[in-house]
Amino acid sequence: MNYWLVKSEPSTYSWSDLVRERATSWDGVRNYTARNNLKQMQKGDLVLFYHSVKETAIFGLAKVTKEHYPDPTTEDDRWVSVQLEAVKALKKPVTLETIKAHANFDDMALVKYSRLSVQPVKDFEFEAVLKMGETTL
DNA sequence: GCCAACGTTGGC
DNA sequence: GCCAACGTTGGC
Q1: How far apart are CA A58 and CA A95, in angstroms?
Q2: Would you give the distance in Å from CA A32 to the centre of its chain?
Q3: How many CA atoms lie within 13 A of A82 on its CB side?
Q4: What sign does the dihedral A79-A84-A89-A92 (CA atoms) show?
Q5: CA distance A29 to A66
Q6: Cα separation of A4 and A121, whole Å?
Q7: Other CB atoms within 10 A of residue A38 CB
Q8: A62, A45 in Cβ contact below 8 A?
Q9: Is A4 within 8 Å of A118 (Cβ atoms)?
Q10: Could you tell me the distance in Å between the CA of residue A30 and the C1' of nucleotide C7?
Q11: Are A72 and A25 in contact (CB under 8 A)?
Q12: Closest residue to B10 by CA to C1' distance?
């Protein structure tokens, strides 16, 4: 099982949008590094859902329910999507500020590669985020 | 293949 | 709104 983090601007697609729809096709990714991460996602992998720009924090937990397939929003076969399903909201959202203040998170992709929209998350990072979010699986 | 110009993302 | 960081494009 691997862990990931996806970013979205809440004005475009928010955590509450995902909760309302229950599941969504995570499409529109147009960056090779992010695309490569999408391709590595496996069914059952857990995904942290982060809001960029406004309310910069991790709000919820989703899971991969369908592995990569051609992105339905383009004819260009270089790009792929995965299906994501909402699992649960974090009891307490974990803000970027909190993450940056956490000593062990200096290497976290969210801090180091802030523009990458689909990122791998290490086991200990994932566990620490849940703990700070006062959330259990 | 290098690099300048330009566009986009996202934190502040 | 500004700007740093980074990706992409295109001229040479």
Answers
A1: 6
A2: 16
A3: 26
A4: negative
A5: 16
A6: 5
A7: 24
A8: no
A9: yes
A10: 10
A11: yes
A12: A53
A80, A68 Cβ separation under 8 angstroms: yes
Residue nearest to nucleotide B8 (CA to C1'): A115
> Could you report the per-residue pLDDT of A53-95, keeping only the tens digit for each?
999 999 999 999 999 999 998 888 889 999 999 999 999 999 9
Average pLDDT of span A29-40: 94
- Which residues of the protein are close to the nucleic strand C, CB under 7 angstroms? A 31-33, 113, 115
What is the pTM (predicted TM-score) of this model?
Answer: 0.95
Give the torsion through C-alpha atoms of A20, A22, A27, A31, to 10 deg.
90
To which residue do tokens 């999408």 refer? Answer: A38
Placement of tokens 């689909």 in the chain: A118
Q: How far apart are CA A50 and CA A53, in angstroms?
A: 10
